[in-house]
UniProtKB/TrEMBL annotation:
SUPFAM superfamilies: Rhodanese/Cell cycle control phosphatase, Thioredoxin-like. Residues 37-128 form the Rhodanese domain. It holds the Pfam family Rhodanese. The keyword Signal applies. It comes from the Bacteria. Keywords: Signal. PANTHER family: RHODANESE-LIKE DOMAIN-CONTAINING PROTEIN 15, CHLOROPLASTIC (PTHR45431). The lineage of its organism: Bacteria, Pseudomonadati, Bacteroidota, Chitinophagia, Chitinophagales. Residues 1-21 form the signal peptide. This is Rhodanese-related sulfurtransferase. Residues 112-222 form the Thioredoxin domain. InterPro entries: Rhodanese-like_dom, Rhodanese-like_dom_sf, Thioredoxin-like_sf, Thioredoxin_domain, Thiosulfate_ST/Rhodanese-like.
Amino acid sequence: MIYKCYVCVALGGLLTLVAGAVRGQQVEVPVFQQSIEKENVQVFDVRTAAEFSTGHLHNALQADYTNKGEFLERVGYLDKEQPVYVYCLSGGRSTKAAAWMRNNGFKKVVELNGGINAWKQAGQPVEGVADTKQLSVEDFRTAIGKGEVLVDVGAEWCPPCRKMQPVLDAYLKANKTVRLVKVDGGRDTQVMESINATSLPTFILYKDGREVWRKKGVSDKL
């Protein structure tokens, strides 16, 4: 009977370890901070765009976990073979997001225990605090008023926007007369509303202030 109890205890401990491995990792700030400094690491912020603009971790990508359409679209641009370090405000949303990712083929997903709240309390820096003034509709109209202008509605934290950067660079290199105007998808909401840009990325070509074509989402050319 004693032998069986020892076996049960050992088996229970083994099952706990296996279950922990399946669930993945939840680490404290120092480990998270050291880990995201490595190469080929993806940092994933699953808060809203408004929360993201109050400060985020370096090089973080963003997708609102509570917006299922946005989350499913943007998570599709992450590399399942490379580690993903995920966080939210305090840990609730990132735990759910990480569970979904593990169940959908991501090899390594690590959560920040306590979220960005814990990060800030530990004295770690954030970047991207939205202290820049919105681009006004009037200034935007002036910027696109003459010549050929390509408007890029996107954001550095948007995974599909990053994927389109080489395509955008190639287009501008091949079309040297075209000027680029960037509209920040997390800040310039009045301009986005005025041009009916509802998704990121959106590319719109203007000639002397008149829209001649637009393209939404990811493609291999503009």
